[in-house]
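Case study B.
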Amino acid sequence: MKNRATDSSKNLNELAKSLRWEAGENLHDHLVNAIYEDAARIANNTVGKNGDTGKFNWDRILDNLLTSRITGFPMMILLLGIVFWITISGANVPSSMLATLLIDTTHPILKSFADQVGLPWWLSGVLFDGIYLAAAWVISVMLPPMAIFFPLFTLLEDFGYLPRIAFNLDNLFRRAGAHGKQALTMSMGFGCNAAGVVAARIIDSPRERLIAIITNNFALCNGRWPTQILIATLFIGVLASPQLGGLAATGAVVGIVMLGIFFTFASSWLLSRTVLRGEPSTFSLELPPYRPPRFWKTLYTSLIDRTIFVLWRAIVFAVPAGAVIWLIANIHIGSATIAAHLISFFNPFGILIGLNGVILLAYIIAIPANEIVIPTILMLTVLSLKLTGVGEGAGVMFELTENADYLRLFSAAGWTTLTAVNLMIFSLVHNPCSTTIYTIYKETNSVKWTTLASVAPVIMGLALCFFIAQIWRIVVGY
Amino acid sequence: MINPFFALLIGLTILGLIVLIFLYGKPFLNRLARSKALSERIWIEDALKHLYDRNSYNATASIDSVSGSLNISRNHAAQLLAKLERLKLIQTQKQNFQLTAAGTAYALRIIRIHRLWELYFANKTGFKEPEWHSRAEEVEHFTSTEEADILASQMGNPTFDPHGAPIPTTEGELPPKAGISLADLEMETMARITNIEDEPDSVFTALVQAGLHPGMQIQIIERTPETVVLSANKQHIPIAPIAAANITVIPHSPDEECQEFENKLTDLNIGERGVVVHLSQACRGLQRKRLMDLGLIPGTEVEAAMRSAGGNPVAYNVRGALIALRSEQADYIHVRKVEINNGTR
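Model:
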């Protein structure tokens, strides 16, 4: 009996071994087919169908309008144009209100409160001039555009239009080795790169998702728009005649945005053919039926999930930066402050690439948020020129109201048109802010891709500035 | 300040150097990384694989064949074979080198690792077909038996590599050889490709570019000393006779169903319908899984619904959902057109 049992189990093993080869390599296919057959049978038995309703045709009519060769692209430009216009024009008012409240009103109150309580000057400096001001600045510049942009964008998403944009633009992105949905993450990046990186979750193909994450930085985020507009108005606008000055400045900013889009495609193309070649790739894009957006739910989730989430991350990073900015402008080593030492250290290299030491230092210490780059540059410029009567004192960020005041300060610091052009270029092509870097790490879970996404753009930006500076000096002169 | 001309010159030189290193640096770095002892082991393993190949086809293995296959001098090949003999991995019989039992086991282990890696590159990465073999060649020498077992279990203990060759089991077992060489296939007989030799590189790449892959149904419709013309999926594919010898096929048994199809999904105009016949075997890994998950399996009715404004992705109505597919994906899906009049909705 025992013998027979071992015998038959031996036979069974032999049988299994020989059958193993006959099962073939398409076992998985057969399994999926069987599952679908079962599911279809169950569905046929239990699910009733009412036939095609009118809604289906309504979808087709909308799709004919929104995805046809003739009307597809104009409709897209129109809808996205409206969203951007509402964001930019609508954000100005609440932004200046917040700035008045947090910076012009609350900051002096806090300072005088500190004096009354008798806090030492350095503590009140770090706390209120450093930390508080950095956080306040980030909130007032960042919150309003995001609070307008994200809900609008989410409404379009909920309506079912965003997948159609991806559908229309996919051919373009396909040639760059990317996914059509990158059009959406890129648009989101114009609001905030950190949000754009999070939005890349909608791309389910690993390679294309990494491409979207790494190249999102080339979408000019709303922290960088003010810098571009200010510098273009001050330096590019004056190159044209007074009537055309505004047009020239606008053209310069649009040009920078276009350059950013070009870099997105170029670096997507390069990435998909080099370092990301081995990542698996697939394409699928479902076009859900249109439906009326759920307004309040959308408003709530986009405010909580996107706006507050991103804002909180930005504040967390701005707080230590505020302290650092104040401290390096106030701690003396020898006869000069740390900031002054660093500026004279960076200056030779800064000048070589057509920028200067102040700008490079500002980009290093203002890494948490692009919003505070210009205030930091102003503060450091005043500090390094040892000016009195301009600004709020060492380590206190500020902004000016008159363009003429800006020009006077910048020309005193030796800025030229080359400095302005390179600052605009470098503002577009440099490392993502630390909020975005942290988000990239959270999303990819990889030090390698985070490093690539952070370091590659800085090297690119420095190289670009270097070559522009040399060619400028040869062609235009010093 | 540095003279801008001078600075520009230095900058361009550095840029040029970086591009050069990027384009041509890899083989150089690889050579640096290989120590002498390591490269000796690589030679041995490559020689064993070659000898196994020769032995299993009952072809003679000689110093010349080893030197030719490994691309080394005859001198080096002779030294290598002498070393293998000292290690008791091979024995000489009348000018022919035969693997010993130990040698066969060693060779099968390397072949197992090689084919597992090929399958890995085919299914789990985005590398294209011509690269699978060479990448597997690079990593196979650095993979232990245990690592290979982990790799195998992660892929569900697969039985065949992407070229259709069986993967030896941990014990070194292989199925009995099946199929015949395409060179021996009779004219006009339907047959299914089971294996395409991945060596030599140039022949394999030519076959891949001709669109041939394991699982495909073919027949020979013309045979001259210069070319063999295959018919597959209503297309005529001419290949060189020497390439035909690198393809293994199994002739159809009469009861096996024919997977002939008329059209690819891309052939459907907007508004036309088709029933999926099958998914091309060239569609693998994540890509295949995704398409099947979407319900694109044999028997599913698909309607081409609309073309995007950019032209390329086309949205198809699949089981009630609107799914956009790029043309290179839709090419993998073979369909039989459904006449609108007969079609029931």
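Chain B touches chain A through 53 residues (CB under 8 Å). The remaining cases will be described in the next quarterly update.
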